[in-house]
Amino acid sequence: MTDIVSIDPRTGAAVETVAAETSEARLDAACRAAAGAADGLAALGRSGRARMLRAMAAELEADRETVVGLADRETALGTARLNGELTRTRFQLELFADSVEEGSYVEATLDSPGETPMGPRPDLRRMLVPLGPVAVFGASNFPLAFSVPGGDTAAALAAGCPVLAKAHPAHPATSERCFAALQRGAAAAGAPDGTVGLVHGTEAGAALVAHPAVRAVGFTGSLSGGRALFDIASTRPDPIPFYGELGSVNPLVVTPGAAAARPQEVADGVTASFTLGAGQFCTKPGLVFLPDDDAGLAVAERMAGAAAQLAPGVLLSEQVRGGYESGARRLAEAGGVRLLAEGTAPGAQGWGAPVRLMSVAAADLTAQTAEECFGPATLLVTYRDQAELAVALEAVPGSLTATLIAEDAEEALAAELEPVLRAKAGRIVYNGYPTGVAVAWGMNHGGPWPATTSALHTSVGVHSIRRFLRPMAWQNTPQALLPDELRDAPQDPLPRRVDGELRR
């Protein structure tokens, strides 16, 4: 059986053996335990699940020092960044606790019996109910907020679905520590055994998606890995939804007016955004559209000067660094692409990689050059006029974000570009930078393929809970058999739509 080893990316050295790859028997037992926990988790009710989520947040907070230290040793992301990420992770759990108590997410709907223009109508009551056990695949670049205790886990548990977390091989020790905190929180709230489970190993991850107990999958990772799991989920005897976030180039457009009015500000903002976290953000601007004029050239020169002085970033794993280097080579070999600047070279040890800034004319942008290069690199795309910009944007694949840096006086241009950008992404950022995703009711973190497998949903914010629920209706059903949310006088009041009228 293969050992799961924790590696320090700063040195490339193995530090400890964390676990063994999950065997077929242990995987089956974990999946069966999750299935067995589903009714008990639902029986906790909204208030009980809210208590559980808050208890999990408290356990993570109590173990902050150790969790952050482990995550830093396994990812080299730095304790300042990781302390912020743990705070975000705790906040996600607490926000979902609030939303579960508030209750509008279940979409409780009651239609009274009576005569209608179409004839008699029965008593109808409808709400959203949990799907069942959910498999969650953690991301390498967010060992807390998008991993074992992250947003997919919080959303699924809030919905009432047990979670089987697949630990990412880039941070297995962190995954184990966070899993233990979730277990303690579940036990403190009286949740049943099997509410949370943990799986290690590539083969075990594939088998997890195929297991009949699993009813949905949340995934954040590479296009190749996500597509392979998506195909497993889709070709099961009983296909299940696969909510995958797979990769994004996040186009950023700088208008002629903005380039002329604030070249230094734009250059600093774009450079900081594409190099943040060594370029390992899913919302990193990978394609930056600049006007092919003196103002655009000034922005590019400032970016090149800054990039050349930047120290190498430490990437998350040997696999990530290999993908970055091969992606950079692919871009360098593409027609018309020039290397404008390269940061200082990394040392011999660890998974370091230099910053790279490249450029290409909009007329030479192709599907190959428009692919994501995960890491500290971006491609400047120079356009001569608005018509050439519009054509070039058509070559951009589906993304999580699209950004427009423009002046107020360019309102007409912005109005023309907005629908083009809207067709390419799930979130438009105006005069800001896309790295950083707020956890809020109004956030949408999704987008057209290949950014996600389902542009209908978000993986960040309260509305992400919708992925793990299905609608259910009760007709002429006695009060005692109805969920509390649909009874005439629910014990835990919540917003409901009654005979077409929204009532609070």
From TrEMBL:
**Ranges for the Aldehyde dehydrogenase domain?**
4-447
Domain of life according to the entry: Bacteria
> Region annotation Disordered: residue ranges?
481-504
Q: Which PANTHER family match?
A: ALDEHYDE DEHYDROGENASE-RELATED, SUCCINATE-SEMIALDEHYDE DEHYDROGENASE, MITOCHONDRIAL
Q: Any coiled-coil ranges, and where?
A: none
Protein name (database record) = Aldehyde dehydrogenase (NADP(+))
What's in the keyword line of the UniProt record? Oxidoreductase
Output the InterPro entries linked to this UniProt entry: Ald_DH/histidinol_DH, Ald_DH_C, Ald_DH_N, Aldehyde_DH_dom, Aldehyde_DH_Superfamily, ALDH_KGSADH
